[in-house]
UniProtKB/TrEMBL annotation:
Organism: Sphaerimonospora thailandensis
Highest rank taxon of the organism: Bacteria
Family: Belongs to the PINc/VapC protein family.
Domain PIN intervals: 12-120
Keyword tags: Hydrolase, Magnesium, Metal-binding, Nuclease, Toxin-antitoxin system
Pfam families, A to Z: PIN (PF01850)
Name assigned to this protein: PIN domain-containing protein
GO molecular function: hydrolase activity; metal ion binding; nuclease activity
Length: 147
């Protein structure tokens, strides 16, 4: 997929891609994802924000680095949960429980946040396994350099 192939409008960025872009680790492929994100309003689910904060806690980041992370997260429009997101999530979880890595609860919340928008948002993800499984059963548009 090239930047020209990415659907217009906002993109929902999953946790892996947001962390790749934030950390800019060598060999993570973050540059490929950043190129696909150019020119789009970037959104993140509430679940991805929580996962990003967990990363800071697990790695015992100090106050300055945590502030930097919060400032990075503020670059995104955070999609919060509401009744529509919950109504979207429930059948997904009922159908896919036990079929995703680590129960896939946060991936399901991210997918539900994307699907509950009008129009639904494409998800830029590095996790084609779980999001691909979700997409086999529910209508998702995925963005990834290899698609």
């Amino acid at each position: 997929m090239t930047p020209a192939d990415v659907p217009g409008g906002p993109l929902l960025v999953d946790t892996n891609v947001a962390s790749f872009v934030y950390l800019q680790k060598p060999n993570s492929g973050w540059e490929n994802f950043a190129a696909l994100m150019q020119g789009h309003v970037l959104c993140m689910s509430f679940a991805s924000v929580a996962e990003m904060l967990v990363m800071a806690h697990r790695n015992s980041w100090g106050p300055a680095r945590r502030r930097d992370l919060i400032n990075h997260v503020r670059l995104y429009t955070v999609l919060k949960f509401d009744i529509e997101v919950c109504k979207t999530w429930a059948p997904m979880y009922a159908k896919l429980r036990g079929q995703l890595k680590g129960e896939g609860v946060n991936d399901l919340w991210t997918a539900a946040c994307a699907m509950a928008q009008n129009p639904p948002l494409p998800i830029i993800t590095d996790d084609l396994t779980d999001f691909g499984t979700i997409g086999k059963h529910f209508e998702l548009t995925l963005v990834h350099p290899t698609l």
